[in-house]
Write a sequence for this structure.
């Protein structure tokens, strides 16, 4: 059986990529190793009636044009808005932000009147930064190493675009690209609850603390998503993020792609620098002129093909590419809603992100543990009780709670994850118990997902949730390697479309979309030069 | 002082915003929470509860009820069997619409009707003129309250209250009990989703509210204000009096009046040739259908997503989407060589969060009313008029299977 295109990996980027290729008329096959598609975005019913978002749990960055192009609404896409963000503190202190900006103003005023005003200023400036950078998120980045005139012109065009942005927008972009979130936050705010609430976006999934100079860009990427045109707002997909990848699979199939689960790819077949197909792990060979890897850069360049066949500088870049898993999940089935004593009896604090990590120092301390090679004794926990928004996530009257836990280094200095995992679960329960007294009594079941589990199940190297750290030296011109940031590889017809390519990780779909655009551009070029 | 509905004592405690508005002289909450979008999503994802008591409510009974309704209503009441409801309208002799409403055939010779405007005197006058003597028309607007329970889990909530409604078809009606309280229940609503409406005597209203809210808690039941309802009804393609049309009764000139065909309700008269009814407005409507003299029709419009993005991005701003629902008139132009070739207007505009595109309800001449036809819709972009591409679309824009599906008792 010969296909025009084979996509390796049925994560959300592979599905997006395959759907676009099929839509353009290519006979497309998407191969997923696991029995289900979705990769890091899956929902599993571990206990009857309880839907667990095993890995990723919230959605924002998914590109709005993908929703239109692939007609995802028709296939069931439905993102439910989060109506609050909750930052519990000690001694009954808290910050509870919601949908109304005046209400938020007064809520922040309880802590600092100046912060309340600064919050508006920074939010507005941030919106303008996101607006300015949005076109770059939705375009193939320029190739800075090429001296082809069109590439040189492309680089100049992007440089000019950035240089012509208003000075205040440029200023914040520079600070985010090269500096720490803590630095910016300290300039704007004094309230620890507010600072640490915002800082959570700047460390999530990354082996850095908010004072690290690499945290600005992590923050930036997490604000660039949109909900109904509002930057930085997040939601829950109906049925969890796995509900979303099921939508993508239906759309891909409706556009004509074949999705085959339970079929892992052993390696890519190529000859004389040209791709010819893939070999499955059962030995079967499948032929195609185009092969797209939706796996991470390490697998794309060192496992699916022989690294020896690649240029030395690319090899070196991939070897140096940082993965550094830093996060775990602990997912709970609960027999009731957690209780924050100062807001006892209220469900609204639990209808969005609940960030446990009440001060900047708390986050720094949590990171110090990770630097010493152990998981944080008092971890930062991003909790989402999705069932408060989507009643179909749990049996009536019960709840599911997804907890994203940091820091949990992939490489432990002492011991192994096999023996540390239950201890991690207990640590999370104890931490939550400090803020939500009686929490352990609510737990009916828990699922612990360590960085090693993430790696083993999804194939994300070291369990890095983004297919590689989102540090500026690994972004844009350099994702995953200088000169190889345009979805191509040195092997003709072999492409890459995972989160390890521009613009990076998160349930965003941009890598899948842009890689498809590149594949189709190249085909068109080939057609033109043939004629 | 505005009136309050029988549920008001509970609504006060729930309205976090402190904002109230008036609906037919009653206090209602446009929204209970800070975000109407959350309430909207309760309709599509969980279950929402709305107090629609400000509607005018009538009981029409007696041996002459059916012949009377056959005469005053434009849609054929004979098609509405016992235990069925019907969406209907009534017209004047010129065939212009006075009002629309939902009528429930509750029992033999007994009908319950909702209306947006008072119509007691008008009906009584018609009864007298037609010599329908075995007829009683009672205004129960004050004596009864209505709750709309809408959303995918609406049936679960009723079942948790031991109300046996699983077999009730779309637009079914039953007279039953809920926690011992007599109610009239219909599988109707204004959201285009699975939903029920519950009529209760005013004295039972608070305990009905409490029972439904308690039973709904496990399904994230959310009190819904009128804004969320209006957003949902645009997706459902349902028209609102005084927004998408006006009552012929209080219009000054015919330009303000509209016939059922002009409102897109020709489907109500599909069997007109076969029935002999002598209803008010028949001649005019029949003539209009035959001679195709309707001046326009009412259609759905889907605004092109890319074009909507473009006009805003070019102006340097994000396209307004969050909570965008508006009832102001927007002009529509024919696309072609002639600039600003005015052809019609939109009456309701919504950025549908669920459908992820702007949609509208619009009036267009028949030659532009076919599904897929392209027109330009004028929208303000930083205060300046800009045209965006829009296409005539079939309504409802959103039509989930659960709205009409048959469920079975389990
Ligand atoms: C714990 C966790 C929490 C997260 N939380 C969020 C969140 O809340 N919101 C958010 O936006 N992002 C979140 N992320 C990040 C986001 O989920 C990922 O960046 C994104 O899902 C990666 O998608 P992808 O398609 O690029 O890769 P993946 O989802 O990793 O897909 C790769 C696929 O390839 C398959 N595969 C691997 N090897 C082979 C092979 N040899 N042959 C065939 N198939 C193969 C894998 O099984 C997998 O399905 C989270 C990630 C993790 C791990």
């Amino acid at each position: 059986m010969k296909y025009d295109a084979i996509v390796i990996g049925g994560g959300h980027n592979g599905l997006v990529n395959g759907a676009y290729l099929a839509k353009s008329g290519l006979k497309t096959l998407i191969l997923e190793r696991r029995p289900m598609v979705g990769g890091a975005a899956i929902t599993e019913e571990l206990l009857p009636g309880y839907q667990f978002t095993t890995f990723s749990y919230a959605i924002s960055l998914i590109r709005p044009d993908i929703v239109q192009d692939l007609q995802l609404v028709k296939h069931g896409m439905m993102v439910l808005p989060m109506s609050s963000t909750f930052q519990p503190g000690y001694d009954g202190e808290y910050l509870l932000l919601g949908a109304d900006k005046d209400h938020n103003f007064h809520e922040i005023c309880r802590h600092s009147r100046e912060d309340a005003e600064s919050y508006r200023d920074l939010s507005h400036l941030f919106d303008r930064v996101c607006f300015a950078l949005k076109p770059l998120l939705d375009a193939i980045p320029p190739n800075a190493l090429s001296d082809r005139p069109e590439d040189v012109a492309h680089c100049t065009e992007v440089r000019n675009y950035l240089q012509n942005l208003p000075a205040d927008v440029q200023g914040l972009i520079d600070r985010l690209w090269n500096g720490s979130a803590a630095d910016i936050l300290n300039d704007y705010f004094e309230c620890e609850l507010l600072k640490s609430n915002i800082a959570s976006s700047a460390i999530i999934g990354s082996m850095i603390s908010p004072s690290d100079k690499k945290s600005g860009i992590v923050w930036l990427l997490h604000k660039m998503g949109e909900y109904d045109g509002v930057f930085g707002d997040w939601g829950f997909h109906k049925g969890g993020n796995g509900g979303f990848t099921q939508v993508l699979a239906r759309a891909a199939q409706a556009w004509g792609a074949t999705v085959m689960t339970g079929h892992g790819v052993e390696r890519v077949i190529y000859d004389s620098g040209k791709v010819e197909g893939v070999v499955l792990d059962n030995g079967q060979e499948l032929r195609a002129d185009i092969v797209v890897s939706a796996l991470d850069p390490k697998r794309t360049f060192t496992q699916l093909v022989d690294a020896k066949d690649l240029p030395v500088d690319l090899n070196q870049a991939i070897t140096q590419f940082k993965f550094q898993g830093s996060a775990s999940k602990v997912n709970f089935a609960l027999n009731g809603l957690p209780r924050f004593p100062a807001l006892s009896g209220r469900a609204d604090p639990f209808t969005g992100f609940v960030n446990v990590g009440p001060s900047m120092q708390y986050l720094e301390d949590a990171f110090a543990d990770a630097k010493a090679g152990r998981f944080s004794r008092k971890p930062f926990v991003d909790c989402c009780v999705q069932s408060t928004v989507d009643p179909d996530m749990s049996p009536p009257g019960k709840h599911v709670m997804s907890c994203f836990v940091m820091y949990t280094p992939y490489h432990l200095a002492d011991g192994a994850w096999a023996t540390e995992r239950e201890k991690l679960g207990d640590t999370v329960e104890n931490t939550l118990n400090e803020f939500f007294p009686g929490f352990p009594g609510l737990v009916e079941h828990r699922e612990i997902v360590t960085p090693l589990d993430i790696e083993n199940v999804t194939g994300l190297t070291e369990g890095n949730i983004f297919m590689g750290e989102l540090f500026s030296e690994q972004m844009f011109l350099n994702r995953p390697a200088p000169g190889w940031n345009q979805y191509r590889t040195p092997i003709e017809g072999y492409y890459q479309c995972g989160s390890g390519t521009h613009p990076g990780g998160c349930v965003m779909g941009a890598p899948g979309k842009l890689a498809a655009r590149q594949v189709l551009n190249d085909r068109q070029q080939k057609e033109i030069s043939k004629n | 002082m505005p009136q309050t509905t029988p549920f008001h004592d509970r609504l006060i405690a729930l309205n976090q915003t402190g904002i109230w508005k008036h609906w037919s002289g009653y206090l209602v909450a446009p929204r209970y929470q800070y975000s109407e979008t959350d309430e909207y999503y309760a309709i599509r994802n969980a279950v929402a509860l709305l107090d629609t008591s400000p509607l005018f409510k009538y009981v029409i009974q007696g041996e002459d009820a059916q012949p009377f309704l056959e005469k005053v209503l434009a849609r054929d009441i004979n098609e509405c069997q016992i235990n069925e409801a019907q969406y209907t309208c009534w017209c004047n002799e010129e065939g212009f619409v006075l009002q629309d409403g939902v009528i429930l055939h509750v029992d033999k010779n007994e009908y319950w009707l909702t209306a947006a405007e008072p119509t007691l005197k008008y009906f009584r006058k018609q009864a007298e003129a037609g010599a329908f003597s075995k007829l009683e028309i009672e205004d129960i607007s004050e004596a009864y309250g209505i709750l709309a329970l809408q959303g995918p889990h609406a049936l679960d909530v009723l079942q948790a209250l031991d109300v046996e409604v699983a077999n009730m078809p779309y637009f079914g009606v039953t007279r039953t009990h809920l926690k011992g309280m007599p109610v009239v229940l219909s599988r109707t609503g204004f959201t285009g989703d699975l939903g029920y409406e519950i009529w209760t005597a005013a004295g039972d209203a608070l305990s009905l509210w409490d029972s439904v809210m308690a039973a709904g808690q496990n399904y994230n039941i959310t009190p819904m204000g009128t804004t969320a309802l209006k957003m949902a009804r645009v997706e459902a393609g349902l028209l609102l009096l005084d927004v998408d049309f006006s009552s012929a009764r209080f219009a000054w000139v015919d330009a303000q009046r509209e016939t059922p065909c002009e409102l897109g309700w020709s489907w109500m008269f599909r069997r007109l040739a076969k029935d002999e009814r002598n209803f008010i407005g028949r001649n005019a409507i029949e003539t209009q259908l035959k001679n195709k003299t309707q001046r326009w029709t009412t259609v759905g419009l889907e605004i092109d997503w890319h074009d909507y993005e473009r006009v805003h991005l070019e102006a340097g701003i994000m396209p307004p989407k969050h909570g965008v629902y508006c009832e102001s008139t927007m002009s529509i132009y024919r696309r072609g060589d002639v600039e600003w070739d005015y052809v019609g207007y939109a009456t309701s505009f919504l950025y549908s969060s669920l459908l992820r595109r702007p949609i509208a309800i619009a009036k267009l001449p028949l030659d532009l009313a076919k599904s897929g036809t392209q027109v330009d819709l004028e929208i303000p972009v930083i205060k300046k008029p800009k045209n965006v591409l829009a296409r005539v679309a079939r309504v409802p824009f959103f039509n989930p299977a659960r709205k009409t599906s048959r469920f079975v008792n389990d």
The interface with chain B takes residues 64-65, 67-68, 73, 77-78, 80-81, 83, 98-100, 103, 127, 131, 226-231, 238, 351, 388-391, 396-397 of chain A (CB under 8 Å). The mean pLDDT of chain A is 97.
